[in-house]
Design goal:
This protein is α/β, with parallel strands linked by helices. The chain folds into two domains: 249 residues, Zn peptidases (Aminopeptidase), CATH 3.40.630.10; 198 residues, Glucose Oxidase, domain 1 (3-Layer(bba) Sandwich), CATH 3.50.30. Helix content is 35%, strand content 23%. It contains 16 helices and 22 strands. The protein has an 18-stranded mixed β-sheet that branches. A two-stranded antiparallel sheet has the order 7-8.
């Protein structure tokens, strides 16, 4: 390299020329970047514009129509819904991602209906026998593997039936449940963080813990708090719908725990604890204060459960949009929504079709609008986008659990699940709650998407509803896949509108009834805002090179992601 000292004035001129050229190139580069950013923003805005109130309302209207008879899992009505969804995916140019080059993944199912005439529960104490009454005192849970199952054993009361060493809590401490029937309260300790409280409230977790302690049967006890969420009378009404389990490749039901199980009403709980020296109120109070109070009960109980079994199948619908990045396109951001509802059940005010408009024709309609929006975006997102309309949510998250166990793409390629259930807020949307976000490295994307939609990010206003385990994202969590569920929050700038009170009233009067149809007040502008938020959240995840991960030391990451 020649030294500047040899020709100083020539060098100065050359430097000035190079400087001007550099500044011009830099300015053009900045303009180019700005153009690219602006173009990307314009493309996202254009895609979001495809998500319209009319589209959500129209899809909901079809899915919630009486002609589909409530879309019960395994019924003709749900099958029609599934084919409608697949046709929409195909029309939007999404590629099939189901089995054998189709849009469908059929889930094999076992139906089980308790036999009211042959199922019995008899309390025995002091040489006396006291039979409980089916439908008033108890309901059998059914057995998915055998038509008849019986046991007679002593009873151990184990509070919530929870063993949570990370919380320093164990309802089984000091009692031996081996060979016994365990009596378990609904719910979990209030002192637990919200999502852990939900997790430990799961009957699946309670049954697994009972089996681990050697129990030979389970009695689930109603509580005043559980009655506020979903009453025993609702459970009796739900006998019109079969219980279901999915079947593995060997035809075995999942999940399955040996030994009969029954649920007791508040009246049945009162009868169970007569003569024990403990009243139900004492037990409820101790539970509400997160104080374990477990003990061996003085009586024995004989449980006989008779179940009518049958096999069926019901489809998940799966499609994808291929990503644009040569490497990241092998990974997927997953959107889920359940397309099933309850079907035809016990008439209420002369109507026996449980249409499931909000729960969850709304989430399915949002899924379809979001899929359409992605099909219009240019350039496509870096990661691929997978859309899964799942079956069997109302019967225990069955379709999503089956898909999470047997995905049609490599399990490790799914970077996150965004679930949509109850996607039409009943009031104007000012706040979004993202269930599960606190466990993940997602705050930036959530905040960005919320800010873009002018939404506050709120906290769960309904901890007693144990929402974290009540929809399909939980199936992905249990397989170690980061997953969230977005819901409308309780914030309102109008003092005349109280979203929390409106939601609670809806849960107590409309939820899981024939009144959940298209005749109820619905805010489709709010549904559009909600859907656009979820679109943006998924898009931001798809664009970021780093995958979402579980926070260091997180309970769910440690429990499930490291399996």
């Amino acid at each position: 390299m020649k030294s500047r000292r040899l020709f100083p004035e020539v060098a100065d001129q050359k430097i000035r020329r190079l400087g001007r050229a550099f500044l011009l190139a830099f300015a053009l580069s900045c303009a180019s970047v700005a153009t690219v950013v602006s173009a990307a923003t314009d493309s996202v805005d254009s895609a979001m514009a495809q998500i319209r109130p009319e589209g959500i309302r129209g899809n909901m209207r079809f899915l919630a129509d009486d002609l589909l008879e409530g879309r019960g899992t395994g019924t003709r009505g749900h099958e029609i819904a599934a084919h409608f969804i697949a046709a929409q995916f195909e029309a939007d140019g999404l590629e099939p991602a189901g089995d054998s080059g189709t849009y469908f993944q059929y889930v094999p199912l076992r139906s089980l209906r308790p036999d009211a005439q042959q199922s019995t529960v008899t309390l025995m104490r002091g040489g006396n026998q006291e039979p409980l009454t089916f439908g008033e005192d108890f309901l059998p849970r059914g057995d998915a593997a055998q038509e008849k199952t019986s046991t007679e054993a002593g009873i151990v009361y184990v509070g919530y039936g929870v063993s949570a060493p990370e919380q320093g809590y164990d309802d089984y401490r000091g009692v031996d449940a081996k060979g016994k029937i365990v009596a378990i309260l609904a719910g979990a300790p209030r002192k637990f963080p919200i999502t852990l409280r939900a997790h430990y409230s799961s009957s699946l977790e309670k049954a697994a813990n009972a089996a681990a302690h050697g129990a030979v049967g389970r009695i689930y006890l109603d509580t005043p708090e559980a009655e506020r969420i979903y009453t025993f009378k609702h459970d009796v009404r739900d006998l019109a719908f079969p219980n279901l389990r999915w079947l593995d490749v060997e035809g075995k039901p999942h999940p399955y725990f040996e030994g009969p199980s029954v649920a007791l009403s508040m009246e049945g709980v009162g009868k169970l604890f007569e003569g024990t020296g403990k009243t139900p109120d004492e037990l409820y109070k101790a539970a509400q204060e997160s104080r374990p109070m477990s003990f061996v009960m003085p009586e024995t109980v004989a449980i006989h459960v008779a179940t009518q079994l049958g096999n069926m199948r019901s489809p998940n619908v799966v499609a994808y949009l291929r990503g644009s990045d040569p490497r990241l396109r092998e990974e997927y951001v997953v959107y889920t929504a359940h397309s099933d509802h309850l079907g035809i059940g016990e008439p209420i005010d002369g109507d026996n079709i449980y249409n499931g408009a909000v729960d969850n024709a709304s989430g399915t309609a949002a899924l379809l609008e979001i899929a359409k929006a992605y099909s219009q975006i240019t350039p496509r997102p870096r990661r691929s986008i997978l859309f899964v309309s799942v079956t069997g949510e109302e019967r225990g998250l069955l379709g999503s659990d089956y898909f999470a166990h047997f995905p049609t793409v490599p399990k490790g390629s799914m970077v996150a699940d965004i679930n949509m259930d109850v996607a039409v807020p009943l009031t104007p949307l000012e706040e979004i709650v993202v269930e599960g976000r606190e466990h993940l490295t997602l705050p930036d994307q959530v905040q960005q998407a919320a800010a873009r939609m002018n939404l506050a990010v709120g906290q769960d206003s309904f901890p007693e509803q144990v929402l974290f385990i009540r929809s399909d994202q939980y199936s992905f969590v249990r397989q170690g896949i980061p997953a969230v569920w977005s819901l409308g929050g309780a914030k309102s700038s109008d003092p005349k509108i109280q979203p929390k009170e409106i939601a609670l009233k809806w849960l107590s009067t409309v939820y899981h009834t024939p009144k959940d149809d298209m005749n109820q007040p619905l805010s489709f502008d709010a549904a559009t805002k909600f859907s656009r938020f979820n679109f943006l959240l998924g898009y931001l995840i798809a664009q970021k090179t780093e995958r979402p991960t579980w926070r260091p030391g997180d309970f769910f990451g440690e429990k499930y992601a490291k399996k």
